[in-house]
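Morning - GN1 inputs below, output right after.
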Amino acid sequence: MSSSAAAAPPVDHTQLFDRIAAAAKNYPKPADVKFGYGTAGFRTLGKRLPSVIFSVGLLAVLRSQRFHGKAIGVMVTASHNPEADNGVKLVDPAGEMLEQSWEAYATTLANCASPAELVEAYKQLAQQLHINIGAPASVVYAADTRPSSPELIKALEAALAAFGDHVKTNNIGVTTTPILHYVVKATNDTTGEYGEPTIEGYQKKTAAAFKTLIVSTSPGTTDLTEQGNRGPLKPLPVDCANGVGALSLADFAKHIGDLLPFKPLNTQLNKEGVLNYQCGADYVKTKQQLPPSVAESGLLNHPDNRGASFDGDADRLIYYYLKGGKSFRLLDGDKIAVLAALFIGDLVTRAKLTDKIQVGVVQTAYANGSSTKFIKSRNIPVTCTATGVKHLHHAALNYDIGVYFEANGHGTVLFSDDTIATLKKTEPESPDQDRAIKHLIALSELINQAVGDALSDMLLVEVVLAHRGWSAEEWDAGYEDLPNRLVKVEVPDRHIFHTTDAERKLTSPVGLQARIDEAVLKVEQGRSFVRPSGTEDCVRVYAEAATSSAVDSAHLRAELESYLAKVTPLSSPSFNPPVANAKAVIAPKRIVLLGPSHHVHLAGIALSPFAAYGTPLGDIPLDLDAIDELRRTRLFSEMSPGVDEDEHSLEMHLPYIRHIFQGRDDFKLLPLLVGHPPSDKANRDAVSGALAKYWADDETFFVISSDFCHWGTRFSHTPYYPAAPDPPVPVPPVPAGPGVANNGQLEFVRRYVSQTKKDAPIWKSIQYMDHEGMDLLRAPARKGAVEEWEAYLSRTKNTICGRNPITVLLNLVQYVYAGQHAADYVHFVFVRYEQSSRCTNIRDSSVSYVSGVLRPSP
Ligand SMILES: CC(=O)N[C@H]1[C@@H](OP(=O)(O)O)O[C@H](CO)[C@@H](O)[C@@H]1O
């Protein structure tokens, strides 16, 4: 669809504003959502996005006017995200990502709460940027295959339609992100040399370049003058992530015949829920395994075979193979960058142009240290930039030929205009030099010059393998990745994490970097960094080291530091590491750790058979004297080594304990595995009496291990309060509410049956039930506390794993304080309450988590 901008009448601004406001009414902004244009544009649930897309339409017009009517691209996609998500990105005239300073404008427009506010913000922006809103503009747009895309395209078109004829539009339909970038660049290319500005133009250009680089050896052809340059190539299985890449691959295949036979996998575009599901580049990279569908196809079983995965919009590419036909080997963005840079470097040498053309590689901090070392050892310069393709892209422009790839497989190779001119005007003095120059020119045409492109990157890889005569294993042989770990840590506010040095060092929270450095120094070839994500509400913790156990240790420390950072008032300018606080307040010599028995039926409490527990951060010695002392009372049983090893309720705490008391070798652990507490008072008192000695000791600290409610049919536990109010004493982050605890008035349904609109959502019912239990623990020394707790457990059957250790603690507190004046001062302070997800229907499940501190003095 396109319309001409010719002879556009002068625009009446008032009418334009009215039209925008009228159209915007159909796309109200969802309340309580704050949108942000991040590294990958806007990205969230597709159903939340219509208003955002509408505002992006307005911005695209302004951006085009800013460039005197050059075409601006709008791509509707959420790339590798799940199918329910969607997103939108703007593409600048040269086919690049939107310039960073405009991201804030996109965010401002997207967050306008009403049509009037939107028009006002739009007006102000145009004024501030001195843009004539009546000037002609041009917008090219496309979407991937997500079910929410057609609705979003309608919202975009509604915004563009408000401008009438002076905005030229070009909907290129359902296609990949890199093809949209290509079309934008080609549309704005006044020389006409870049290629036709259509999907077909892209395919033709790419296929022609590929054919130049791979000479067919079809019958009768004997021209094998190129070293290793042989076609047809071995069939290539391509996992299309059930996304739009399947379309462009099928299209491309038609242009190259049998030169490279593809075996497309995961090509279902009309089936619900399959996009990026258990397939695609992101799946392979993060899981480090074949997609199940690729494994089942058996196509990789031969050691010489290789496979490739695209992501949902085909801008990322990952390769892999099975070493010896068995063990999975990943060939990620780092491996692709190395392959491409070395090959192009060799071509530049053969073209005798090393004094004129510098090849360089651009990576992010996530590039494996081995790849960086390997590239540098080949005298190729390497630049490290912040995460996000736009940063890599701009840094790559500083080289004559800039190879950039993120480890996740997003990247390309940029040839500068001067380089192309140099190649075209160099007079070759030998056939080899001639071929090298021709191949470099063909590569510049094969590789998408606008953005990372799974299809053209895949062809680049195939060209290099063919020219080198390499199998995937030979490609892989260059260097071995250092073992590494990458995890997300959710924090209340990721914006307080600030970095420097291409995101490799934290400047705040103050003190955190020093602790990470300290951890890294202890391991060989260690490297670790923490940075806030630009696309998700989390910080990412990365570590690598010479061995897996060393990387576990470095990673765990960095991860624990980041976790701990979130429980401290980080916003305060003088951030005190919580660990330091913990040491200052408590310096116990003994930790008594009580955890529930998950795997064996146990009467009473069992003792450990071990002398120490190992953690990746160091060993924790057990308090053998105390264990012996308790053993002699004959009130305790024994854990077998297998039971002790299997029990995660104790194990989960060990790295934290070791970390908090790092550098301290003068403390010991007394682990106690708790089964059913004795039911008769005499026995309970006897156990409490045995433990009371440690309770009384100022240098002993008790830790009780437990989670809270496990709700869902998979736990056979679906209690429900249809009328659940807010908890009377809510624990953060539950917001304080007006609710009144009055259990008597609540209708308690043993099992969840159904929910009407008026009923409380399930998660709220769980929240209330958990808080009821927590309320009973707040004053554990009061008369009747144990009985009320047990009655609560028996009434609600709340699936609190650590209910028995909590009962042991209550018994102990009763034993020590009952009837004493000090009992008034013993109280639990709950610091945090969370649910793993918010259940709203019977198919959902969640686990609740509660943390609290028992203070035994005023
Ligand atoms: C570790 C990682 O993979 N980070 C990804 C991710 O960015 P974050 O800022 O880390 O959320 O999404 C970006 C956009 O897709 C991509 O460019 C980047 O590589």
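Note: The chain has six domains: 13-174, 205-331, 333-452, 484-578, 586-704, 710-855.

O.
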